[in-house]
Design a protein that fits this description.
single chain; alpha+beta; six-stranded antiparallel beta sheet; 6 strands
Length: 179
């Protein structure tokens, strides 16, 4: 009888141990996968991907009749802010990605500001755009390789804590909804 009870206790103990090991192993794999996906996104990000995903963002939220501007991380004030990319094709994306890397791992440029953002502005105020509160600003998510709507300061970060230059037609990387 004692041997059976001892065997039952051992079985329960080993089963619980295996479950804990599997859960902890799953958490480690999930963490490595998340960090790895973010690193891969950062490492392989291109201007064409940014442009394609900006247009995909407008399609996802059914936004049309807008111009799209891209904003990059700006650390010139010592705090994180966003600066409009005025010449998208001449823009040094690698320098911007390097600032993002330094910010992440060297504790420079503190703040909740996005590393890369979009600003959508109506092309013609008399035409419907589909812009809703929170969709006119978006931030790049390195974990999912796409832009996410910025609907508030507590949705993973702010668009920019500091003032930023307004989007203008000269800086558009794309227009959506125009024929």
């Amino acid at each position: 009888m004692v041997k059976v009870l001892l065997w039952g206790v051992r079985l329960i103990w080993w089963t619980l141990g295996a479950i804990v090991a599997l859960v902890l192993g799953g958490m480690v794999v999930g963490f490595v996968w998340d960090v790895g996906a973010s690193f891969w996104s950062w490492r392989t990000l291109t201007k064409s991907t940014i442009q394609e995903e900006a247009v995909a963002y407008t399609q996802l939220y059914r936004i049309e009749n807008v111009g799209i501007c891209v904003y990059e991380l700006d650390c010139s004030s010592g705090r994180a802010g966003l600066r409009r990319v005025s010449d998208f094709y001449g823009w040094d994306l690698q320098a911007s990605l390097d600032r993002t890397w330094q910010r992440r791992f060297s504790d420079v440029c503190p703040g909740r500001t996005a590393n890369l953002g979009l600003h959508l502005v109506p092309l013609d105020s008399s035409q419907p755009t589909g812009l809703r509160r929170g969709t006119e600003l978006a931030r790049w998510n390195f974990g999912t390789d796409r832009f996410l709507a910025q609907s508030g300061n507590f949705s993973g970060g702010a668009f920019s804590e500091l003032p930023y230059q307004a989007c203008s037609p000269a800086a558009f990387i794309a227009t959506v909804g125009t024929d």
